[in-house]
TrEMBL record:
<keyword id="KW-0663">Pyridoxal phosphate</keyword>
<dbReference type="InterPro" id="IPR015424">
    <property type="entry name" value="PyrdxlP-dep_Trfase"/>
</dbReference>
<dbReference type="GO" id="GO:0008732">
    <property type="term" value="F:L-allo-threonine aldolase activity"/>
</dbReference>
<dbReference type="InterPro" id="IPR023603">
    <property type="entry name" value="Low_specificity_L-TA-like"/>
</dbReference>
<dbReference type="InterPro" id="IPR015421">
    <property type="entry name" value="PyrdxlP-dep_Trfase_major"/>
</dbReference>
<dbReference type="GO" id="GO:0005829">
    <property type="term" value="C:cytosol"/>
</dbReference>
<dbReference type="InterPro" id="IPR015422">
    <property type="entry name" value="PyrdxlP-dep_Trfase_small"/>
</dbReference>
<keyword id="KW-0456">Lyase</keyword>
<dbReference type="GO" id="GO:0006567">
    <property type="term" value="P:L-threonine catabolic process"/>
</dbReference>
<protein>
    <submittedName>
        <fullName>L-threonine aldolase</fullName>
    </submittedName>
</protein>
<dbReference type="Pfam" id="PF01212">
    <property type="entry name" value="Beta_elim_lyase"/>
</dbReference>
<comment type="similarity">
    <text>Belongs to the threonine aldolase family.</text>
</comment>
<feature type="domain" description="Aromatic amino acid beta-eliminating lyase/threonine aldolase">
    <location>
        <begin position="6"/>
        <end position="288"/>
    </location>
</feature>
<dbReference type="InterPro" id="IPR001597">
    <property type="entry name" value="ArAA_b-elim_lyase/Thr_aldolase"/>
</dbReference>
<dbReference type="GO" id="GO:0006545">
    <property type="term" value="P:glycine biosynthetic process"/>
</dbReference>
<feature type="modified residue" description="N6-(pyridoxal phosphate)lysine">
    <location>
        <position position="201"/>
    </location>
</feature>
Length: 345
């Protein structure tokens, strides 16, 4: 079978042999009864790395985010968050179905939320006409490729505490953010009350995410996880991959960042392409075609025939994502194939 170069996302990562071996040899139990030793080990490891009191293994990032909203928020209350964040843009409106909350968005092209903008949106205190704010959400690294500075997170957290509000952090790619900011991940998680972290993106695990927070929060979330259908049984096979992801895959994410910079540089050499270097902070490269008449469906087919997988444009942009299975040689092949496609038009 031909090897595909897959630039659609870092969610496409297959598992390296050493991760598969850990899965095959995992000791397992029934996690709903809280007796899967490998899941317990993963949760303890994750809570330690993230600087939180407790952690919970959940099926996916969307599940983890929505479980945190469900646990934090009374039904009919309101959540403040950026208008371009993942919870708003790519989680199927689940907050209205699961937590029964209203999302109150702030204009946020970079992913940062200014304290002034948050303050204007807050609805705290009883008013017969209005829902009350129950939560503020941040995303870091942001799915638009930006990383939110620690100081910005601190200001949001301090404002939230002034109004006795919790902060949830969508940290799907928080380890990418920590590397980009050259800081320990705990410097980011100290400014949130709950955090969700994906194991199945650049860390290469086949399944699962972690939510972390204080023990009382996780105890409530554990029961609500069961309500949502997330009470799993011998899930230690997947937890074993998560342990490898946290212990062995975090540090190498810098390679994906470096490869993204190489990809952006090579793409920028193609006259028909405009690369957004302002959002080149993690493992994502965003670019546009200067000629709007280019048929991207034709490009997708051309690439697929060349054993390259990409997504179509979204919001006028294309996004290529580097990960464990994308090498420097792959990047050069992608750019060469793209030149060939454009020159054939």
């Amino acid at each position: 079978m031909n090897k595909f170069i897959d630039l659609r996302s870092d969610t496409v990562t297959n598992q390296p042999d050493f991760m598969i071996n850990a899965m095959v040899n995992a000791e397992v139990g029934d996690d709903v009864y809280n007796d899967d030793p490998t899941v317990k080990k993963l949760e303890e490891l994750a809570s330690d790395i993230l600087g939180k009191e407790s952690a919970l293994f959940v099926p996916s990032g969307t599940f983890g985010n929505q479980l945190c909203l469900f646990t934090h928020c009374p039904r009919g209350s309101e959540v403040i968050l950026g208008d371009s964040c993942h919870i708003v843009a790519h989680e199927v409106g689940a907050s209205s179905v699961i937590a029964g909350v209203q999302l109150r968005t702030i204009d946020s092209s970079t992913g940062e939320l200014s304290p002034e903008a948050i303050e204007k949106k807050l609805r705290v205190g009883y008013d017969i006409h209005m829902p009350e704010t129950s939560l503020i959400c941040l995303e870091n690294a942001h799915s638009n490729g930006n990383v939110i500075p620690v100081e910005s997170m601190k200001k949001t957290y301090e404002l939230a505490k002034e109004h006795n509000l919790p902060v949830h952090l969508d940290g799907a790619r928080i380890f990418n953010a920590a590397i980009a900011l050259n800081t320990d991940v705990k410097e980011l998680t100290k400014y949130c009350d709950s955090v969700m972290v994906c194991l199945s993106k650049g860390l290469c695990a086949p399944f699962g995410s972690i939510i972390a927070g204080d023990k009382s929060f996780i105890d409530v979330a554990r029961k609500k996880r069961k309500l949502m259908g997330g009470g799993l049984r011998q899930v230690g096979y997947f937890a074993a991959a998560g342990i490898v992801a946290l212990n062995e895959m975090r540090a190498r994410l810098i390679e994906d960042h470096d490869n993204a910079k190489l990809l952006a540089t090579e793409l920028s050499k193609i006259p028909q392409i405009e690369v957004d270097f302002n959002r080149l902070q993690i493992n994502m490269v965003f670019f546009k075609f200067k000629d709007l008449s280019i048929n991207t469906q034709d490009l997708i087919k051309y690439f697929f025939d060349s054993n390259i997988k990409i997504n179509d444009v979204e919001g006028g942009e294309m996004r290529f994502v580097t990960h464990y299975w994308v090498t420097k040689e792959d990047i050069l092949k992608v750019c060469s194939s793209l030149k060939e496609f454009l020159n054939s038009k």
